[in-house]
Amino acid sequence: MGFKLANVGGRAALVSREYYYDIETVSNGKLGSDPMAVLESLGILSNLASSLESFTPTGKLDDVELGPPVPRPRNCFAVGLNYRNHAKESQLPIPDVPMVFAKHSTCITGPTSNVQMRSDYVDYEAELVVVVGTVGKNIAVESAWNHVAGLCIGQDISDRTVQLSGAPPQFNLGKSFDTFGPIGPWLVSPDELENPSSLQLVCKVNGQTRQMDNTRDFIFGIPAIISYLSEIVTLQVGDLIFTGTPAGVAAVDGNYLQNGDLLTTSIEGLGTMNNRCVRISDHSNADVVPKTYSKMIAAMRDKK
User: Fold this and answer.
1) CATH numbers and ranges of domains, the chain
2) What is the pLDDT of residue 294?
3) Pairing relation of β-strands 262-267 and 200-205?
């Protein structure tokens, strides 16, 4: 039996239709309230989810604000250029191995939280996020799904002035400003999905579609990414893996996020996030116009 795990006011909750159920309550104290801790007990979560009809709902989802379903990940990995059409629009060759960088975990925020911008060059990147459910090292591709607790929606928000200022560019800080990692609205176990390897993704800004694709366009599928990462680091329960974004990012056409924009991200079977973009201040490089992807690549080639 699958489950949907949410964070309601910092407390772990299971979701069924329009209702949520406090996990500590429905488990009669067998599990606590910490959303991170309950990830250690996936079997119990599945059993509870299968019997929710026998419990009174704690409340309605419409009446609460959800936090990030995985609020304090130890590691937050991200894969660049993992959609073929995004590699094409970036004028970059298809990578031979996953291009992995890190988002600092302090950027993680909720599915309705504001994105706090500090320049005029903040970009959206709609992504499918994998949550690790079982510790693993040197994981075989064939068994990788056994290490997945679930999937959720993510946005790899990027300040291009910071990300693209160097040659070669340095991704981490430009993608790790506070609030630059919205995830949610809840964590969905793979067995809740008809085909977790084929999910439609849509990103809209103020109702206008900016990105639309299917994870079938992945260069490296989820099992391959998990196997590759686990050769290098031991994956821990609750680790996040942002799996890449499709074509349509603002770095290509200059259509960056603006103060007041509503960023809406949906993935088939996983729900929808709505994040308001708010310009709160300037950072030290805020007045620097970032190179577009094409200019960045040309500059790197010139230096060779």
Assistant:
1) 4-64 (no CATH), 76-303 (3.90.850.10)
2) 55
3) antiparallel
Using the structure block, give the residue that is written with the tokens 């890449």: 244
Mean pLDDT by 10 residues, the chain (304 residues): 95 98 97 98 96 96 98 97 88 91 97 97 97 98 98 97 79 94 98 96 98 97 98 98 96 93 98 98 82 54 44
Q: What is the pLDDT of residue 276?
A: 98
Residue 279 to residue 182: CA distance in whole angstroms:
16
The Cα 49–Cα 59 span in angstroms is 16
Q: Which two tokens stand for residue 86?
A: 């995004």
**Which residue in 2, 218, 188, 256 sits closest to 95, CA to CA?**
218
* Polymer length in residues for the chain: 304
Residue 104 tokens, joined: 């600092």
Identify any residues that bridge with 80 across adjacent strands, giving them in sequence order.
99
For the record, the structure tokens of 174 come out as 């430009």
CA 63 to chain centre: 24
DSSP state at residue 218: B
The pLDDT value given to residue 300? 43
Nearest to 139 by CA among 233, 65, 55: 233
CA-CA distance, 231 to 108, in Å (whole number)?
A: 25
Q: Hey, what are 63's tokens?
A: 């009446």
Compute the distance between CA of residue 56 and CA of residue 131 in angstroms, rounded to an integer: 28
Whether a cis peptide bond, with omega within 30° of 0, leads into 168 is: yes
d(CA 304, CA 30): 60
Say what the alpha-carbon torsion angle 83, 85, 91, 96 is, to the nearest 10 degrees.
Answer: 40
Q: How far apart are CA 21 and CA 27, in angstroms?
A: 10
CA distance linking residue 133 with residue 222, whole number of Å: 14
Q: Which amino acid is at 228?
A: Y
